[in-house]
Amino acid sequence: MTRSTRESFLSRLHKPLGRTSTITNVPTPPEVDESIARLVQPDDDLFAVFCEKAAATGMKVHQVTGDSLYETITARLREENVRKLSVSMNDPMATESAIKSAGFELHDWKAVPGKDGLDAQFDLDAGITDVHNAIAETGSLICQSGSSHTRGMSLIVPWHLAIVKKSQIMPDLIDFWNDRSSLSPDQMPASIAIITGPSKTADIEGVLITGVHGPAMVDVFVVEDQ
Amino acid sequence: MSSAPGSQTTASESVELTMDGHDILFPKLPYDMKQRVQGATNNAELQEFVNSATRMRDQMRINGCKDAFGDNYDKIRALAGDIKQHTLDNLDYYIEQFIDNATAAGTNVHYAADAEEANAICKEICQKHNAKLVVKSKSMVTEETNLVHELEAIGVETIETDLGEYILQLDHDAPSHLVTPMIHKNRASVGRAFARELGVEYTDDPGELTKIARRVLRDKYRQADIGMSGGNFMIADSGSVCICTNEGNGRLCTSVPPVHIAYIGIEKMIPSRKHLPVFLKLLSRSAIGSPITVYNHIMTGPKRNAEPDGPQEQHIILIDNGRTEVLKPETREMLRCIRCGACLNSCPVYRKVGGHSYGSVYPGPIGALLTPVFKGLANYKDLPYASSLCGACYEACPVKINIPKYLIQLRSDLIGGKHDKFTDRVFFKLWSFSLKKAWMYRLAGKMAGVFLRLRNKGVKNKNPYLNRGWVEKVPGPAAGWTEKRDLVTPPTKDFRSWWDEHQKSKGGK
Ligand code: SF4
After folding, report:
1. What are the chain B neighbours of A30 within 8 Å (beta carbons)?
2. Distance between CA B106 and CA B103 in Å, rounded?
3. Confidence check on the interface: ipTM exceeds 0.90, yes or no
4. How far is the CA of B338 from the centre of ligand 1 (A)?
5. How confident is the model over A79-108, as pLDDT tens digits?
């Protein structure tokens, strides 16, 4: 069998499009009309909208200040009988020391990179992350891959705890994608996850179950003064 | 299909007793719908599940979309439709742009003209990595190419990880809905399949069953050599692929194993990242009424050097498999489909006959369009008629595909623009003639009444409104009406005469 090449594959497209080669003029796609597609305005109360929408997805939302953040987190960890957890964020020092001094076992995911590192995360009870942004419209968390960000901490662990600064909340999904639109392909992170609630399924007779493959619980700590 | 002795027949089993999952989606051609439709309509359980689940989801869609978009609901569907149509009109340009950008991000892009080529590429990648185990998330195009069977045939264990698809795979069954693939099965059949195939104790509690599946599949993610996915959207201006799953299996399949292969039909393209939110806002609302899918995973290339984890290799297999045939101007609009399943949920025919009756990978109204075009109209003559043309699908479709219009087009293609029977032709001639003048219409109505009363088969029903008797058979093109049900004999006095007299008796004109 002769294999398709880029050229032979494209020529399959040219015929039904009624041409013999790819158009050279850059086509102008329809604009995203914001009067139709935008659901949250920049001057809305983003903090309030985010908290409301995030709670509606089944995430537990905690409104905290910079001072009460770690106390609230460790109290929740105790409540759920967590033993071993890990932290993945830009500046993990303060969070890690709060966890350790509260007596929890801290797993250092950076010590085992790559697939083995992810493998070890299957045995954790919880993971704490920051976020790259949050979206008021849907109550979503944006978690990107990066040098300080393992993919597992918002995915493999049964419980994901996310710290959101008020200043990171964007009004609408439209704003997030406008913001990321100028990055070249190699500047894009390999993975952007838009996370909206705990893992869910309704496959068996439409009965809603949380916690299939991804985290069954998501707690969001929204820091009001940051 | 082996089932435990003494077990009741499951919904899917009684539809077709002799089939495994493969035959359900790939029946003998030309395909005759009747047998499966009969199986489905005689199956009370299936009728109940499918009917209640689709009605519920249809209502959730309406509520979710009206809540979010209000009076703009129709406009945002038009916008999404326009964006998709524009992309298809310039698909060569956007595919080239996508290939360049994905390659720049480090992705290997492959080209597959048909199912055979797609699977050959996939098998080569598996063999290169000496893969023993593949975990995959839900993808309709892998159903099209029958990928799982082909990988298993070369000794690569391939596991579906979407809960519904996993259950279907265990039970040798096939999906019957685009979004909720096991809509036709009940919890008891899942419990039996788990007990039989996994050796666990029988339970039919959905929460327990989910836990069992979670436990089994978590190990599989860890052991898998390759993760496979489909793609909900390809983004031309960044070379990214977006997959949307509520369970998180899609993200696990594309994050944990060292190699990721994405199977994607060429029609999944959108021009830019700026267009993505329009579709993310519509997809989940149209499917199940929720504002957004739980996990939207946008992947651009394999793991970067500085990143600690993620697949080291990413392959995207661009798949034609009949799509360039649909891309011709007359049918191009059909390729806008984002597989939300809303047209299935809203369809009175789908609710009755279930997904397997459509005899192909794509069920429901959109399947009734795509399958005949993909696989030949002569092979699927029944499908264009598997619709009441009520227009509910068109109203529900987030990209405004005019499904009824194309179904009528297919019907007319089937009969070559002509009715083939002489009696039909005479009937339609007379009918159209009778519609020309009001008096002719009334006369024709009276004559039809007289004719039907002559065929009266007597009283069957105690209901005083229906005690005029029944007509069991009428000839000509109306025969179809009475094939499955009887027609009430028309009263001697028609509505118009009754109305005139009624008005007179009240002193009106
Ligand atoms: S045809 Fe429209 S409604 Fe049906 S699955 Fe496709 S996008 Fe959804």
Report:
1. 79, 82-83, 86
2. 5
3. yes
4. 6
5. 999 999 999 999 999 999 999 999 999 999
Classify strands A140-144 and A133-135 as parallel, antiparallel or unpaired: antiparallel
Give the residue whose CA is nearest to atom 8 of ligand 1.
Answer: B340
Is-contact A181 B273, C-beta < 8 A? Answer: yes
φ/ψ region of B469 (left if φ > 0, alpha if ψ in -120 to 50, else beta) reads: left
Domain that holds residue B461: 435-505
CA of residue B179 to ligand 1 center, whole Å:
11
Q: How many domains does the structure of chain B reveal?
A: 2
Supply the pLDDT for residue A216.
97
**Can you tell me the distance from the alpha carbon of B399 to that of B395, in angstroms, rounded to the nearest whole number?**
10
Give the CATH number of the domain where residue B244 resides. Answer: 3.40.50.10420
Number of domains comprising chain A:
1
CA B151 to chain CA mean position, Å: 25
Q: Are residues B442 and B297 in the same domain?
A: no
Counting from 1 in the atom list of ligand 1, the atom nearest the Cα of B364 is 4
User: Within B356-402, where are the H helices?
Assistant: 364-375, 392-396
On whether residue A4 sits in a domain, the answer given is no
Q: Rounded to a whole number, what is the distance in Å from the CA of A67 to chain B's nearest CA? A: 31
Q: Is residue A91 part of a domain?
A: yes
Phi, psi of B224 (to 5 degrees): -65, 140
What are the DSSP E strand ranges found in chain A? 60-64, 84-88, 105-107, 126-130, 133-135, 140-144, 159-165, 169-170, 191-195, 200-201, 209-210, 217-223
Out of B264, B295, B324, pick the residue that ends a domain. Answer: B324
Residues B108 and B231 in one domain: yes
B283 and B338 in contact (C-beta within 8 Å)? Answer: yes
Which of A138, A173, A201 lies at the smallest CB-CB distance from B163? A201
Question: pLDDT confidence of B17, banded at 50, 70, 90?
Answer: very low
What pLDDT band is residue B488 in, cutting at 50, 70 and 90? confident
| Cross-chain Cβ contact A172/B277 below 8 Å | yes
Residues of chain B with pLDDT > 70, as a percent, come to 87
Q: Are B252 and B209 in contact (CB under 8 A)?
A: no
Q: For B248-287, what is each residue's pLDDT tens digit?
A: 999 999 999 999 999 999 999 999 999 999 999 999 999 9
CATH number of the domain encompassing residue A139: 3.40.50.10420
Per residue in B424-444, pLDDT (tens digit) is: 667 667 767 777 777 777 787
Q: CB–CB of A185 and B105 under 8 A? A: yes
State which residues form the domain around A83. Answer: 44-223
* B185 occurs within a structural domain: yes
| Ligand 1, atom nearest to B341 Cα | 5
B303 & B445 share domain:
no
Strands (E), B219-365: 226-229, 233-235, 240-245, 259-265, 269-270, 295-299, 313-319
3-class state of residue A52 by DSSP: helix
Cα(A150)–Cα(A154) distance, rounded to whole angstroms?
A: 8
Is B111 within 8 Å of A8 when comparing Cβ atoms?
Answer: yes
